[in-house]
Fold this protein.
Amino acid sequence: MDLEEAFQVVGEFGKYQKRTVAVLTLLQIYMACQSMLIVLIGAVPKFTTERLADAGGEVQGSQITFTEDFSSIVSEWYLIKHQAYKVHLAGSLFFAGVLIGNVFFGPLSDRIGRRPVFLSALFFEVLFGYVSALAPSYEVFALSRLLVGLMNGGMALVCFVLTQEYVGKSYWAMTGTLTNMTFAVGIALFAALGYFIRPWRNLATAANSPGVLFFLLCVTLPESPRWLYSQGKTQQAEKVLQDLAQRNGKGRPVLKLRRAPGLDRPEGSSTGLAHLAIHPVLRRRTLVLMYVWYTCSLVYYGLTMNASEDTGNRYLSVAMYGLVELPAYPLCIYFINKQWAGRRKTMASFLACAGVSCLLTMMIPAKSESLFNATSLALLGKLMVSAAFNIVYVYTSELYPTVIRNAGLGVCSMSCRVGGILAPFVPSMRVLHASMPFMVFCLSGISAGCLGLLLPETLNKPVAETLEELGSPTYQRILETKVRLLEDEQEKPKHKLNG
């Protein structure tokens, strides 16, 4: 039997898999806190400047007094005026680390396994997170944010892949959606945490501490059976699947996996990053996906970080930019599983709608008091790009074979982090013109939506395990599975009659 048939036997989404996916999904709250940390601990408190003069009336300097009841890295290290760029730099360093982590840890997890890379990255992310909270200077803080991002990039990528590879393919859309939905909830919870914990060091410590608990919960997780199967380790994959069946309450069924095609390559021809450029199908998909991921990240994080510059309650603004994503996920689950919509058309439509929302934002006065104002349209844009971001995670997983899935996701996520690196600076473009940030978001969203239509549809099509399967008949394995299941159903009544 092949892997999908084995999942039919052991359970595609049994009770043990539900517990495992729940832990990995809740881990998104921790990752959201780390990703959004700079939004609150880098916020600029209100301050007054008083000129200091000597007895002769000559100005000797100025004294800055912060008047709000919270502290941040700005108030501690006086990152204002000509030092203000350091706040955006710290945010960009985090995403630069994520970019490096994607490039390094993605292929590494394809080579040595998902579990060791995931646990190592999570451990060191928690460790460096505490360094951020206790940093004695801005330089140490900035370096720690780079290292946290490095580990976050590797851990988050493998975490998402594991939520997919522990379950049957028919549940990939659901687990991917739950993962991204929990990240949105994490943004809102981080805003609430920041409201109650005003000193920035205490906030950074509180936001990092759940990582210790999640690390202890994840230590017992098994290796991905899909990765083991794609590497030709069929006996180990069978053992993991039998353990899943036992913990799902189905005993230990006898499983005999057939060897995946394409594993008998000549020595020195192992799958790696080079195949993304050499293989014609993968090259085309990767180029399009890289731009789509870049746009999703730029618009997503750009609009979220723009919340800290909005007038009014910054905590409420950050929470709203998180909560507004939640309606997007039920829409995703509905549309991407409909034959007339699917993954491709739905993703492209949401990206284009996000761009149009940002375009309309530029046409409405910023201080309009009607319901249809610039803020509500920006929130609508955030909802749309969140939906597209959710779909692109699931869609990309289905477009890449298992043997190169993490490498493909790593490269796409690398371009995504380029968008994240640039995102903190986009809101500051309003000094050129008030509508400039939304012009950038508008053009990016519409162009990415058009390019997304060049990708193939993956709905109801089996996932490839090896590169060779990209050229195999698309529906062959899924039809064989359905025929076997139909024959089994027909045999059951005969046994009952004979009994």
